[in-house]
Each structure stands twice: as structure tokens, then as C-alpha cells.
Amino acid sequence: MKKIIFLAAAFCISIMAATAQTQEYKNFQLSFISPFGTNGTQSQFTTNKVSVNIIGGYSYGNTGFEFGGIYNVNTHLTQGIQFAGILNYSGNTQRAIQLAGITNVAKKGTVNAQVGGIVNIAQRVKGVQVGLINISEDCDGVPVGLINIVKNGGKKEFELSVSETLNMAVGFKLGVDRFYTIFSVGANYFNSPVEYAAGLGFGTHIDWKQGWGNQIELLGYALTEDGEFRSGVNMLTQLKFLASKEISPRLKVFAGPVLNLTISDYVNPDTGKLGSSLSPWSMWKNDSDKTRVNSWIGVAAGIRF
Q1: What is the pTM of this model?
Q2: Buried b (16+ CB within 10 A) or exposed e, 216-232
């Protein structure tokens, strides 16, 4: 038994030694698709300073610039810039920028920037993420996308609000204070039939002392007429300037003015009136090409939790 253990240990040590001996650092490598390139079968043990991969590359690491026509994979280290037509993957990043047509993944470490057509995933972001979906454990920067998920310290906030335009609205916010996405639905119960709205927006939160803060938010809604979403143009845009006060760690109240703008080509079949029925009054109005643009200032208030 001792002899078997000794032989197993010796085998493991020899493998580790062989691996250590094959670790290489190259200033430049060119490949068609790994292992068909200048590093051959040693790609997985090689750290490159500049790497050009016509289709895709698989390396231990990269410390300067890396290009992949389709993908780049660095199992242990990525520094500098990593650019790929579809996918970048790094086991560990340090002061790195990842640019990809679809997906960037930085499994460990800190990434300075990720720009992906669909998904960005990182352990820690100290800069910016730009993509349709951005996911990180921690973020000291700004995620800019439709869905922004920061697991530690990110914004995950529900909101109930009332206003003269949408008598009741429900919103959900994702992201960070610097930049967050807003998903919202609302209704106007004063209309008959009840009119509905479904919207998307973005906002930023400015934190002040003693639980006070300000929010600047821009939202766009699709509106119903006669209780139905119809073809054509019928939309509401809102620019909100809000002030909030934290009542408890899980509850805030807010209120503030709202600049409203409706754009509609809807014509009421009974009255012949042009424009959205959700416009309660008008500060400024313009009709052109069978479309009415109407604006007014309103007020919104509510709670967040």
C-alpha cells in the first residue's frame, strides 16, 4: 500500500512539474482555431501579450490585446482588451475590457468594462457594463441595459404611485442608484372604459442626508383607447422630478412634478376628437399629419419598498 501511495504521489508531482515547465509567455500568437496556430497544443499553457484568432482562441491568459473572429477563451487571466465576434470568456480578469457581439463572461476578478450585444456576466464591475442583460456580484460602476442585476447592494425596488394621468401605477426597478431600469404598468379608472398603460423607462437616484433623495426618471408608455391597445401611434412620455424620504430601511415615500407628453393619431369614433383620452388638460398642443401632440405638467406621489 505504501508503495502504491508513493508511486501515485510521484506521478502527481511529475505531472505538476511538467505543467510548470510548459508554462510559456509569448509576445504574439496567431491561430486559425486552437490548437491550429503558432502555439499549437501548448495554447492552454501559454500567456500571450497579443493574440489574433481567426475563428477562436483558447489560452492560459492574455495581457495585452486579443482578437477572436468568433470567440476567445482564457482559462486563468485576462488583462487589456479582449474582442470577439460572439463570445469572450475569462477565468480571472484584472484591469480588463471585454467587447463581444453577444456575450462576455468574467468568472472571477474585476472587469473595467464589458460591452456585449446581449449578455454580460462578471464577478465585479469597476466601470461600465453595456448590454441587453447585465449581471454582476458587485458593481462600483454603471450597468446600462434593459435588465441590470447586481446581486450585492443593487437596486431591487417596487413602487406604487398615483397621478392625474395614471390613477394607479405599479413599477419595478433594477440596477444601481446611478442608473436603473423601470418596468411599469398603470391604469386610469376615471375613464370609461378604464384605460391601461404599459411602459419602460430609466432613472437615476441622487442620495442626500438623513434619508432624503431625488430621482430623475424618463418613461415611455403604450396606451389603450376604449380599453384596447390599437394599431397606430398612441403613447405617453413622462419626465419625473421626484423627492423621496426614507421612512424605514424597506419603505420610502415620494412626490414631485411630472412633465407629460402624449403623441396620438387616435380619432374617437363618437366625438371625432383627435388625440389620447388620457390628456386631462393642455399647456401646449400641436396637430400635424393627423397626429396630435399634447403636453402638460402633473404631479405624482407614492411609496417604494
Answers
A1: 0.86
A2: ebebbbebbbeeeeeee
